[in-house]
Fold this sequence. Notes:
Blueprint: E1 8-13, H1 20-34, E2 40-45, H2 48-58, E3 63-67, H3 84-90, E4 94-97, H4 100-105, H5 110-122, E5 126-131, H6 135-139, H7 143-153, H8 160-163, E6 167-170, H9 184-202, H10 204-209, E7 212-215, H11 223-227, E8 234-237, H12 244-251
Parallel strand pairs: 1-2, 1-8, 2-3, 3-4, 4-5, 5-6, 6-7, 7-8
Helix pairs in contact: 1-2, 1-12, 5-7, 7-9
Bound molecules: 2-phosphoglycolic acid (PGA).
Amino acid sequence: MTMAKRRRVMAGNWKMYKTIAETRSCLELFLPLVAEAKDCDIVIAPPFTAIASAVELCAGSNVAVGAQNVSWGKDGALTGEVSAGMLAEAGCKYVIVGHSERRHFFHETDDMVARKTLAALGAGLTPIVCMGEMPEDREGGLTEEVLRRQFLGGPGSLTGEEFSRILMAYEPIWAIGTGRVATPEIAAAAHRFIRSCAAEQFGMEHALRLRILYGGSVKPDNIKGLMAQEELDGVLVGGASLDATSFASIVNYTS
Ligand code: PGA
């Protein structure tokens, strides 16, 4: 498949880490370290409670703020949920949807992922739609089947126009938080497969424009190898994004 030039996205998923005070001190260190990074989009996704402070600190910088989850509803009796409109009002530009921890611990299904993606798009947010296989899927040779099912049940249900506004992240579950990064070749093969699902569903032009991030134990010492793969359009970083210096060296991996 011939490659179009796609702008990289370097995103940090802070998960349930960092208070408002910790967010502040991390960003005060991080923002100057990445101020010269002009040829990629940089995103941090703090917990809900720290979003407003992060937005205030990132104002006027090259770093955008995202949320880690969103409700599929606009409003309503949905205790504990936060709507896409609320996130947009708080200054979020992105939202992570369907992270494996949401799928696993909170029983999110492909259908919920599809509804959340639509809600995010409706509020003008860019959803980062995650998918990835379990270790036993990979060992059983089921990786492509699982990825296809997650693709068709989630982003595959969008219109072409909606699809053109999402980002995707390939996050093999066996690589998340385990220190067991996918080899660049394994990651690239999965990205190629996801792109081929996109081509089947939406046509080659959409598929070639789609940006797919890799996530799972991305660290300063493996970023270069991963990004050497043209199929990888950026990364979604968990653990290593919590430390300002280490996330900055991932963002600045070329320098
Ligand atoms: P990790 O997490 O970088 O700590 O493996 C990645 C993620 O869950 O997005």
